Amino acid sequence: MKTARSGLTIEKAKLTPLIAIRGSVGVAIVIGLCLYLGSPALAVSSAFGAFAAGIATFQRSWRPRPVLALAVAGGLSVSTFLGYLAAAHIVGFLVLLSLWTFLAGLAWSVGPVSGLVGTQTVSVMLVTVTLPTSILGALEHAALIAFGGLVQAALIVLFPVRPWGAQRDALADALAAEADYARRLRHDPVAPFDPQPLMDARLASAVTPRQAKRRPVQLHGPRALAEQVRPVLASLADPVVGAPVEGPERDRARELLGAAGTVLDAVATAIRRGKPVRLPPEAMATLEMPQDGDGPRLTGAARRSALRLISLLADAVEFTDEPVQATRPTTEAERGHLLRPSVPKLVPVALRSVRRELRWSSRFLRHALRVSAVAAAGYLIGQALPFGHGYWAPLASVMVMRPDFGQTYARGVARFIGTLVGVAVGGTIMGLTHPNLYVSAALAVVCVLAMYLLMRTGVSVTSACVAAYVVFLLGIAGAGWEQTVQERVVLTLVGGLLAMLSYAIFPAWETPRLRERLAQWLEANGRYAIAVFDSYARPAERRPRQVREALLDARAARAAWEESESRAEKEPVRHRGLSLSAAAAAQSALSTMGRVTMILEAHLPDKEAEPSPGAHAFTEALRESLPRAVEAVRERRSLDWSALRSVWEEWEARSETRGVALRGAELLLDALDDLAEALSRGPGGKNRAARGTSTAASRSVRLPSSPPS
């Protein structure tokens, strides 16, 4: 029930009226031209191309919107033409439909936008081939669909709305997340931080060669600074390696964290709006280091963190204050790892992604097989039922099916309810007003405008708009509205039931894979910790790029775990060796492990520093213990970190001072012990890490709120 309700949820979203108007104008232009110069059948066919191209431009993608519109229109026109060629022979069309749907299902392995585009091509293949035509007519319909995408692309170029808006929002969201993190650290020195905004900002910063020549200067520097600010904030707030738990130094740390939040928010606002930074003087005064006798001063590692933080914030303001309209080419350093391949060069990348998923355990391969079988079965059932337009059944199945159960089930329920509302509204209007050709076209465009405007509010809302749009659109072609309403309701229900049944017969549950995801996260976190401790062991040989790559791998593994865990929560299956409480406890322990390693990264020694024999021994012990621990997680065996702790105890006994590396190693061991405890508990057992109070975190006392000023 919870999954079903999630599909019916209507979310409050930021509306983009100008973009919605532009997309609906593109559909109106295409329909109007075809009605004026051609026929109603051509208008219906061309409208699908403009409509689908407009939908693609609303997706979360960092590619230029005109490129998305053209790519979608090209795929739609090819699928339409091939569908027309095979439509006369039901066996041939079923083979084509099954193969095309299978490829569209595999397209989800490339990315969500590619998966959506593949789904759109299947839907257009099912709908447009029902319009009677010849081979030459098929070419004409395919060309008109491509024309619809061309019109949308032209409108985007001629009437740009907030250029680079997606990239600006991604970078601003990352900075705003760090500003919120800085404020939370004032009261909770071990506050959690979700790195997803930083990962999105990194994806958004990758540009094609053509984009690199036009990217605003304001989007160049702050992302790298945002990556560096986060560990500095954490190290300043942490009472083990930063400011003490209480006293004047803690008060000074609170002031710096509050000022950092203000500055980061100001930089985020400037980037989002494309304007210079506006900073309050109070924040600037706080970020000035006090002179002797002027107030509390930080010492040791906390002072180094404060100086680094002030320097990074000054650089962020300076980068953002550069001319917001000026551009410069991407540098060679940026071009090395942040270059996005062009559409032609994307083909081999996509083929490699698909090839990696051609294994029985892949959820994308199972999704492709499942959706292909459902599309073929739905088409046969639709043809056998005493209705016209039997394609509604497979169309409903294909449009709601996703690689995971939760989304499929939620979208299926939402689509059916939305379809009921849409066809009821559209059918009522058609029955009461009996609109002519051009009024039906105008009503269809209004529905498109409503759908584009409310795109991000929920599946049920967009499904209602689409259902009404189809009622009016088929009214242009002369289809009886009574028959259309009846067909949509019954066949949409059939298609939804087929989608649900396919998951019962051929499931691809995520729950049994949770231990594998957890093992991958532990392995990635371990490699990240090894890279950082190795920099303490051999400062002269440290390689920043190696640490950076290990950090990115750890983030990717964490994101994969969180995605799997989120999908598993919505599945109607029992746990397979990892209960929800144990999963939450293990996640808390590994998050702490990543946070501790990140703090250590903020204090990496210079290349001229003395090597640390203790760090070297700890690194080698961790390198030796990690593979055994990863296998133990996969095979449901107990974790044993006693050898690693013995190395740490020997390191502590030989050290005259407790440096940052030694203290960080202790916190890391505590997090690993918490992980072992979490995985050793039974399904119903309680775990203190699950309640957010792990051993490592408990060393950092939750601080009282700062007194009001």
From TrEMBL:
Pfam families assigned: FUSC_2 (PF13515)
Membrane topology: Multi-pass membrane protein
Listed transmembrane segments: 25-55, 67-84, 90-108, 142-161, 368-392, 412-430, 437-455, 461-481, 488-509
Low complexity bias: start-end ranges: 690-709
Region (Disordered): 679-709
Keyword terms of this UniProt record: Cell membrane, Membrane, Transmembrane, Transmembrane helix
Major localisation: membrane
Domain (Integral membrane bound transporter): residue spans on this chain: 379-501
Subcellular location: Cell membrane
PANTHER family: INNER MEMBRANE PROTEIN YCCS (PTHR30509:SF8), P-HYDROXYBENZOIC ACID EFFLUX PUMP SUBUNIT-RELATED (PTHR30509)
Family designation: Belongs to the YccS/YhfK family.
Protein name stated in the entry: Inner membrane protein YccS
